[in-house]
């Protein structure tokens, strides 16, 4: 009997291979994306985007080409190739099983809805964090980088029609949820479970890496919180689908909120960090803990045959 190829690769080596593949594929994807933008819109468009001159016609379409070819498709390619051809254990590393209680999806929905005050609180804490004086230059660089990223996101999420909103819900909500969860809660978290031998450590390490990957320091804590939620959804159920569902709810609802605000259908600015009061934070914390306890117990029930 031959052993699985993954057993010949230590978790640390698996992680290094995954990182190397990711960097390589992202570089290739960005080069292809930039090439297509130059082919369709000219070199000036690439230079304008790099300099944040975003007023030229077609800039939004060019940004979408760069986003899809430079990030979305590469991040889908990486976990699929890694799980299928490197470790050759796609079931374990991608966790595609749907043989789970469907009640979990209802619990996940409730968690994501009720956790909004907690996410706001963490965002407020993050926004008010101040670096020591000797790191003021680093803080300024981080703030400037995030301001630039916000300008790009604002353009990408400019939705003039309902069709544009639906397209963004699919692209930003669904596709991003699938590729990032396969990458992080699928491959990365599985590697760290094997590496540390501790599910909780793996969930938190993966959450930290997930948040750091987005390179938004002033959104680090709320994204870490979300990453940990997604991690436990996957670890306790053994399936990637609850995490994808949770990620989709988070991203999709954000897109819908932006659309409604842009068209003055709601008055609450989605970027506001002062919507809830402190009692809501406490209530949210208690209910989310209860729902996670409930999720864990439901997930532990014996599974029926598919």
Write the topology of this structure.
Layout: H1 11-41, H2 43-50, H3 59-86, H4 90-94, H5 103-114, H6 116-127, H7 136-156, H8 162-196, H9 199-213, H10 220-237, H11 241-262, H12 278-300
Explain briefly what this protein structure is.
With 306 residues, the protein is an all-alpha fold.
What does this 3D model show about the protein?
The protein is 75% helix and 0% strand. It is mainly alpha-helical and 306 residues long. It has 2 domains: 92 residues, no CATH class; 212 residues, no CATH class. α6 runs antiparallel to α10, α6 packs across α12 and α8 crosses α10. It starts with 10 loop residues before the first helix and ends in a 6-residue tail after the last helix. The relative contact order is 0.13. Keywords: Hydrolase, Membrane, Transmembrane, Transmembrane helix. It is an enzyme of class 3 (hydrolase). One of its GO terms (molecular function) is hydrolase activity. Pfam families: Rce1-like.
Report how far the terminal alpha carbons are from each other. 28 Å
Report the biggest beta sheet as strand number plus sense, adding barrel if it closes. Answer: none
Number of strands: 0
Percent of residues in beta strands: under 5%
The unreliable regions are: none
Structural class: mainly alpha
- Over the alpha carbons, how many angstroms does the gyration radius reach? 20 Å
Order of helices and strands: HHHHHHHHHHHH
- Can you give the helix content as a percent range? over 70%
Shape: globular
Per DSSP, the total helix count is 12
Mean pLDDT over the residues: 91
Q: How many discrete structural domains? A: 2
